[in-house]
Design brief:
2 copies of one chain form a homodimer. By secondary structure, the first copy, chain A, is α/β, with parallel strands linked by helices. The first copy, chain A, has 10 helices and 11 strands. Chain A folds into 2 domains: 84 residues, Leucine Dehydrogenase, chain A, domain 1 (Rossmann fold); 135 residues, Rossmann fold (3-Layer(aba) Sandwich), CATH 3.40.50.
């Protein structure tokens, strides 16, 4: 089969231009510049890279951005006070707290402290609950990025068997809920598999669409995939590499070389789902600035 | 196969006794009597029966209950004002608004107006979202009743293939999420099927557990069920009947007579999932009174 590569980088660049155009119009109309704040705690390499990338993307689309950094010994109290300040600041349209947080700080408490109307990461229970019910809300980045890719490539989903591997709160569960909703993309028959699943290979072989989000490099092999399946790879595990400057490279959950020839569409890693996650954040911030949802 | 009937009525009576015992202890310890309020709008026959049953069940377990009735021409404004009053009333531990509501009133607005800490129906986005994330919350009645039945009958769920037929917000989606969570009951491989599903029979034949919640009488036939499957019937469609005083009887989504001989466990209708829904409401009210969750 000749597979088609789903180019998340290209789609992401295209959507960035669309957002930049809209921001330009907003400002020309005398509206306020959208403003995203990002809180980062400590010096985790991955987190610093992600946050730098988010700040840079804000610049690219014409958003104002504020980066607020704390050392990793910051108290929960101080962090919650900062969140409260951002909740009240009328210039801040949306903000996120980059995860993970140091162990002495409760991620649950932090997420619930964010005003759900500024929760552009879509992690607050109100946004999660509204997504389940099918109400307008901030959908979290990865699930929303996956749906956008399916949409931009016109991939049919109605009545398709969609297998989601992984049941995490930030990918597996929400993407499963979105894929089963009465909408496009959606209307799929969705199966959620995880570590306790016994007949995974058999289940995957019946899938028209596989969303692999378990975080295990090259887990999905060719013998688990039906000819013509659509493969969405959410995995981004850093593995050591002597070939890159950084000393590591990203590996997906799919054994790309062997799976691609059987697929109709497939996302690469990097350059597939990854670049889309930033798009969802930018889009949620734009929606917050325009007060479209709340 | 000799099937085992899942006796929801017996389990429900047993749990009522357990709750009544706990309430007696609470009052003996000088604690406040748990207090549930129920708002009913109009004179829908089904709703009036349900509400009467809820009020009676409160009596049976020693709760105080308040029934607040509005005519079906009540304005949304008046209804929301009553909700606000109940939100502020410290004697009311939990309350529900019996659905459906007349068309001129937004159910969404009504549900979101309820303080989630008193939302013992578990319909508020905060409770739905917390359920998805796996945080303590008020779980809605039917999903929680189904899990309780599986638990009381010691039915294994880990690694089992569970097929949910129906994707409603009050049954299909939440029960699917609960069955996939890392817990018992749960840890199942869950497939959600619905009107757009193409190969339903094939999918059902692979199921160890089938939860039928589509509201189509006797939809699930023997040829869709694997020998030894566990069958949970959530359907309660009223069909006309000359054999009952009321002039109708309840029909489940399962063709019981033909499916039962193939099942290992099966719930009857009535007397299966139905009686359990009231239990979840009582239990949520007790949790609210004890401030266990919020």
């Amino acid at each position: 089969m000749t597979y088609k590569l789903i180019d998340g980088k290209a789609i992401s660049d295209q959507i960035k231009s669309e957002i930049a155009e809209e921001v330009k119009q907003m400002i020309a109309n005398g509206q306020k510049q959208p403003h995203l704040a990002v809180i980062i705690v400590g010096h985790d390499g991955g987190s610093e890279t992600y946050v730098a990338h988010k700040v840079k993307s804000c610049e690219q689309v014409g958003f104002k951005s504020t980066r607020i950094a704390f050392e990793d010994d910051v108290t929960e109290e101080v962090l919650l006070a900062e969140i409260d300040k951002l909740n009240r600041d009328p210039d801040i349209d949306g903000f996120i707290v980059q995860l993970p947080l140091p162990k002495h700080i409760s991620e649950e408490k932090v997420i619930e402290a964010i005003d759900y109307r500024k929760d552009v990461d879509g992690f607050h229970p109100v946004n999660v609950g509204r997504m389940v019910i099918g109400l307008p809300c901030f959908v979290s980045a990865t699930p929303s990025g996956i749906l956008e890719l399916l949409k931009r490539y016109d991939i049919p989903t109605s009545g398709k068997n969609c297998v989601v591997i992984g049941r995490s709160n930030i990918v597996g569960k929400p993407v499963a809920l979105l894929m089963m909703q009465k909408a496009y993309p959606g209307d799929a028959t969705v199966t959620v598999c995880h570590s306790r699943t016994k007949n995974l290979k058999e289940i995957c072989l019946q899938a028209d669409i596989i969303i692999a989000a378990l975080g295990s490099p090259e887990f999905l092999k060719a013998d688990m995939v039906k000819e013509g399946a659509v493969i969405i790879d959410v995995g981004t595990t850093r593995v050591p590499s002597s070939e890159t400057k950084s000393g590591f490279r990203l590996k997906g959950d799919v054994a790309f070389e062997e799976v691609a020839p059987k697929a109709s569409y497939i996302t690469p890693v990097p350059g597939g789902v990854g670049p889309m996650t930033i798009i969802s954040l930018l889009r949620n911030t734009l929606l917050a600035a325009k007060k479209t949802i709340y």
